[in-house]
Amino acid sequence: MIAVVLGITYGAIVGLVSNWLLFRRIERNRRHGLDPLHQVGSIFLWRYLMDAVLLFLFAIVVRQPLAIVASAVSLTVAVKISLLRAYVRKGGRLE
Question: Which of 7, 48, 75, 82 has CB atoms 3.0–4.6 Å from 19's, for a disulfide?
Answer without folding.
Answer: 82
